[in-house]
Write a structure and sequence with these properties.
alpha/beta, 27% helix, binds flavin-adenine dinucleotide
């Protein structure tokens, strides 16, 4: 196909993840288009995801965060970047945008016509009432400027104690980086767990890692106000009256889409509050596209619209919109699964698809399988255990979601699960995947396979899994761990028969009683449960994830 020769005027509002991708792609698809990025901030295409890591010093040089400059956009793409240009109004009839250009304190009005308009205005951090008129040492972290001000404050004033409010992805990253600077850090979270997209027991693994790394973690903790004198906050006052002294506060309680421009132009918003788009990122406004954090995407597993304020979907939607705006066709935007990952000190944790709460809210029946397995062959030096949880439909075994935590190999398992989810696959597909294996990389039976095998056993009742936090009272509990393990982590009410003695001693048990088998991770308990089921025990279950997960209850 010949490249289009149309000299369209393409205007992009917002020049970071989605907007910069859209502009660059538009140029690659149309050599003649006149492409302009209008960005209200002082820079374009900066790495917001890298901001926390410069605060901690892990990304040493600030300029590394500037992925592309206006000069590069012009030299390489002949895309005009106009920083300091805030668009205030879209005139759909006249097909133009207008706003204010500000430099050195002076403002000038501007108006620019468009043939195609791409909205990429992103999201903005939510500002709770207690930080509406913040002191000089209270921050949010969303822009380079925010990052610079945090660093300047830490350099200008002694910062021994910091408080981070909100234990989402950004909050956790900042906590890690503040600790890296030897700052005594407290993390406050209103919910009973950190990182809400994870199931509670998986989130508990992060909480333990935080505590072990010296972070003061306060869950179920509501902030009431900030105590300030001379424009500096000295303490965070909690709803229960307690005051926590602090030298620095960083508020990370979530984001909301910046949709006011789209809304005032009469562009349709969906039930989630994001801009409604079709598969080519076209909005309800003719010739107007929207990408990134302001839109609602189609969630492939949930089968409904959802907002996912993450960089991956922003970049991908930018690419689709850029191509379509430039030449009238592109591949359609694929659905999202909400795949996300974070590093918290020595632990990497991630999620894709639905968690248990989302399944419940959507009325989707589900079952779960949790395993522990080394990230590569256990006999090869450096093997590290990872925890993998699969969520799947009873009956069909359709994969609904996955979560993983560990110090190595988490991203790989998560991405494999995300891929299978994307294609609507089942746990049986996961069990049969032909994955790369040699001892330094994985196992002949990869953790992904192991988790899928456990799920398959569950669905085939070979035997079923009991929920990790199930009420065990009234059941015959058969603990097949060795004596040392039991001494370290006892389980009340259990009969202790080590797995290797069970073939000789199973007669000590009552075959008529509903029975649950237990070990450290569920692996030996599975062998025990199969044996008992084979001997005619009529209701046997294996405790999901074993004591390694039950201890997180
Ligand atoms: P943005 O990248 O926010 O860009 C929007 C731009 O539009 C802004 O520069 C803004 O100034 C401009 N703008 C807004 N209104 C106007 C207007 N009226 N006129 C002109 N310009 C305007 N995501 C991940 O997937 N992984 C991560 O690890 C990760 N870490 C993050 C860490 C931090 C600290 C932050 C802040 C974000 C992180 N994200 C991460 C989220 C990710 O950065 C965003 O999802 C992504 O940048 C959204 O892209 P966007 O183009 O929609 O919006």
């Amino acid at each position: 196909m010949n490249p289009p020769q149309e000299a369209l005027r393409i205007v992009v509002i917002g020049g970071v993840a989605g907007g910069a991708s859209a502009a660059a792609r538009a140029r690659r698809c149309n050599a003649h288009a006149e492409i302009t990025i209008l960005e209200k901030g002082p820079v374009v295409s900066f790495a917001n995801c890298g901001l926390p890591y410069h605060i901690g010093g892990e990304i040493e040089h600030r300029e590394k965060l500037l992925v592309a400059t206006p000069e590069l956009f012009w030299d390489r793409f002949r895309v005009q970047v106009r920083t300091g240009h805030e668009v205030k109004h879209i005139d759909r009839d006249a097909k133009s945008v207008s706003g204010v250009f500000t430099r050195d304190g002076h403002s000038v009005a501007f108006e620019i016509p468009y043939d195609r308009l791409i909205l990429a205005t992103g999201s903005e951090p939510i500002c709770p009432p207690f930080c509406e008129s913040p002191a000089d040492n209270v921050f949010q972290l969303w822009t380079l400027d925010d990052m610079d001000r945090i660093l300047a404050d830490m350099q200008g004033q002694p910062c021994k104690r910091a408080t981070v409010i909100g234990a989402g992805f950004v909050g956790l990253e900042i906590v890690e980086q503040l600790k890296q600077r030897n700052i005594d850090t407290t993390l406050l979270e209103r919910l009973p767990q950190v990182l809400a997209p994870l199931d509670v027991e998986m989130a508990k693994l992060i909480e333990l890692e935080l505590i072990q790394s010296g972070v003061h973690v306060r869950l179920n903790t509501e902030v009431k106000s900030l105590v300030s004198t001379d424009k500096r906050t000295t303490a965070v006052k909690l709803a229960d009256g307690e005051s926590l002294p602090t030298d620095l506060v960083i508020v990370c309680v979530g984001v909301r889409p910046r949709t006011s421009l789209a809304k005032s132009a009469g562009i349709e918003l969906g039930s989630t509050g994001g801009v409604t788009i079709n598969e080519y990122c076209q909005t309800s406004g003719p010739s107007i596209y929207a990408v990134g954090d302001i839109v609602e995407y189609h969630h492939g597993t949930l089968e409904r619209a959802i907002r996912v304020p993450l960089a991956g979907p922003a970049n991908r939607s930018g690419r689709v919109a850029g191509a379509h705006a430039a030449c009238g066709h592109s591949q359609p935007l694929r659905s999202v699964q909400g795949t996300a990952i974070v590093r918290v000190f020595g632990l990497s944790v991630g999620v894709t698809g639905l968690n248990s709460r989302m399944c419940r809210e959507a009325g989707k029946p589900f079952r779960t399988a949790i395993i522990q397995a080394p990230h590569h062959a256990s006999y090869f030096p450096g093997a590290k255990n990872l925890t993998l949880k699969l969520i799947y439909e009873p009956g069909s075994g359709k994969l609904l979601g996955a979560q993983a935590a560990g110090s190595a190999g988490v991203d790989k398992r998560l991405d494999v699960a995300a891929t299978v989810l994307h294609f609507g696959g089942t746990i049986h597909d996961l069990a049969g995947l032909d994955l790369a294996y040699a001892p330094p990389f994985g196992s002949a039976k990869d953790p992904i396979h192991m988790a899928a095998f456990v799920a398959q056993n569950d669905l085939a009742m070979l035997p079923i899994l009991a929920e990790y936090d199930a009420e065990l009272e009234g059941l015959q509990i058969v603990d097949v761990r060795n004596a040392n393990e039991i001494a370290t982590l006892p389980l009340a009410g259990a009969v202790h028969i080590p797995v290797d003695q069970l073939s000789d001693r199973w007669q000590e048990l009552d075959p008529k009683q509903p029975t649950v088998t237990v070990c450290h991770s569920g692996k030996r308990a599975h062998v025990a449960a199969c044996l008992l089921q084979g001997k005619g025990f009529n209701a046997v279950a294996n405790l999901n994830g074993g004591m390694s997960i039950r201890r997180l209850k």
